[in-house]
Amino acid sequence: MPVQYVLGEWDFQDLTLKMKPPVFIPRPETEDLVSLIVEEESQKREKNSGLCLPVPVPHPVILEIGCGSGAIALSLLGKLLQSRVIAIDKEEAAVDLTRENAQRLQLQERIHILHHDVSYSSAKQLLVWGPIDFIVSNPPYVFHEDMASLDAEILCYEDLDALDGGDDGMRVIKTILALAPSLLKDSGSVFLEVDPRHPDMVENWLQAHPNLLLILRAIHKDFCGKGSLQVSQPSHTLR
Fold first, then answer.
1. Per-residue pLDDT reduced to its tens digit, 27-83
2. Cα(203)–Cα(142) distance, rounded to whole angstroms?
3. Alpha-carbon distance 135 to 188, whole Å?
4. How far apart are CA 121 and CA 100, in angstroms?
């Protein structure tokens, strides 16, 4: 059994989170997703502070798809102190664990947690606080043919639905990207953890779906050689 389940808790960023099987255990490399969003929000605020805007820039609304233990969502709430997060997961055990961790960390007032399986028709349920600044997800992205080669401990104890991304590893990624234009603010972005093979595949898929008006903005490599993607609308200016 993974040590995180044996201990019943694990650290992620600056937080100690409760862990329960079979909810997916957050990996250290996923901390990069949090750092990228914090940096992006900091750059936005720095840029806007020099514009002498007549009204204050609203604090960010963030959507996490596939919240698991709540690691990403709660870390963002801890680092972006005025932000609000909508966290969803299709597994009830994950929703319950995110809710428990939010309460333990006294962050429950700024998070809306939903038991929901994201689909192409999800927009209405997810706009509870209006348009979204950032969509973030560590989605299932393992190619189905690679599932059998995962560590035996993972295969025995963790939720395999949180890992298996279908034949091309992009089953959930495609749903998130197709949904994004109906959720994001004009300046919004999607941040995804992906397989190293996915950046080119995502770029090709976006080019094949020009109606979404999304482009691959940036690719980031983590210390494990995996990648994170930033996808946004063309009007989202480079900084």
1. 999 999 999 999 999 988 888 776 666 566 678 999 999 999 999 999 999 999 999
2. 18
3. 8
4. 28
By the 8 A CB rule, do 194 and 220 touch?
no
d(CA 42, CA 65): 22
- How far, in Å, CA of 18 to CA of 6, rounded? 11
Give me the amino acid identity at 162. A
| pTM of the shown model | 0.92
Q: How far is CA 102 from CA 8, 60, 82, 116, 150, in A?
A: 16, 18, 15, 18, 30
SS3 call for 79: helix
Tell me the backbone φ, ψ of residue 33, rounded to 5 degrees.
-60, -45
Q: Measured on CA atoms in the order 14, 19, 23, 29, is the torsion positive or negative?
A: positive
